Amino acid sequence: METRVAVIGIIVESNDSIEEMNQLLHEYGTYIIGRMGIPYRERKINIISIAIDAPQDIISALAGKIGRLSGVSAKTAYSNV
C-alpha cells in the first residue's frame, strides 16, 4: 500500500485528554517518524507536531481521533512525495 508523509499539528488546551492522546500515539507508533512537543506555559497550552509516514487512511484516522479529544485540536499537512 502506498504511503504519504505528513505532519499533524496538535494544540492541547486541556490536560484532561493527554493520557488518551498519548495512548493513540503509542497505538500508531509504527508509522510515526518523530514527535516534538513544546509547552507554552504563558498560554497554558501544549503544541505538538507529529511527523508520520503512513497510508492516507491511517493518517486521517489518527488525526480524526486526536481532534475529537476534549480540549485538543489537530490539523494535517501532507507532502506531495
From TrEMBL:
<dbReference type="InterPro" id="IPR023860">
    <property type="entry name" value="FeFe-hyd_TM1266"/>
</dbReference>
<dbReference type="Pfam" id="PF21699">
    <property type="entry name" value="TM1266-like"/>
</dbReference>
<dbReference type="InterPro" id="IPR027271">
    <property type="entry name" value="Acetolactate_synth/TF_NikR_C"/>
</dbReference>
<dbReference type="InterPro" id="IPR045865">
    <property type="entry name" value="ACT-like_dom_sf"/>
</dbReference>
<protein>
    <submittedName>
        <fullName>Putative iron-only hydrogenase system regulator</fullName>
    </submittedName>
</protein>
